[in-house]
Amino acid sequence: MTEHIIDTTLKEASRWGNPEYMEEGLVLTDNIPAGSIPNKPTRLNFIMLALCRQGSAQYSIDTTQQTVNPGDLFFVSERHIVDSYTATPDFECLCIMVSTPFYHSFVQNVKNVSSLLLFSRNNPVVTLTPKEQKVFADYYKTIREKMADHEHHYRLELVKSLLLAMYYDMSNVIWRIEQQGDRKQSRADVLFAQFIHLLEENYKSERFVSWYAKKLYITPKYLSDICKQVSKRTANEWIDNYVVLELRVQLKNSSKTIKEITEELNFPNQSFLGKYFKEHVGMSPSDYRKN
Fold first, then answer.
1. Which residues contact 279 (CB under 8 A, 6 or more apart)?
2. What is the separation of C-alpha 134 from the centre of its chain, rounded to a whole number of angstroms?
3. How far apart are CA 230 and CA 73, in angstroms?
4. What is the pTM of this model?
5. Region of poorest pLDDT, from 19-33, 111-125, 252-266
């Protein structure tokens, strides 16, 4: 019989260890105590990035066993399943947990959204250089201090800016490791990466799975199966994710009219765009822009 999968939310994670919590979708903690993650298959409904400072921990991601030691940075992407978590009594880590909407709110270049998630799929644990460890620890300390400063008028904007800066420093780690590595990828990993690259180039005009499948010389069903296997999202969900993120970015960070955005993203008309946006975000484009 298949074991029941437990869903863990960011709200629950805000009670782990010694947390600092922002309702907008961010938790920082310097410890993940034993028992925080149930010793059963647990789906994390947020993105986790953590640096091991001392001790060690073991766990599996999607049934693949992982071990982290001091100096290791470890990733868990949203919807992936953690199981068999154990840690030594002295285990300490600097942990940053972010909801997907909050992640999208500070990573403003749509093409960058998938890079960390794609990298973490193939490299869930990486060893940082001493300099990179210090960079991550410094960001953690500063972000935590700013999160705790509730009197700061620009607290949210400042925290987002710091997270974006940290994102680029961590992207430099990704670049370093990718330059060094020659890891052999599975066919599913290769096709998924090709799909994401195609999507990054064409999401403004092409929103049908069949179009991408044809470009990859595979069937739409096979493409969706691969996406689900590799990322826990369907191909349609990835397409919608890119389109909705672009809409969010355009509405919040540009002075373009909704009519101009409609034309740029090749929607038939403003009414269709409005319905699509409300279906995925829960409010109209104009209300989102005001908020």
1. none
2. 22
3. 21
4. 0.73
5. 111-125
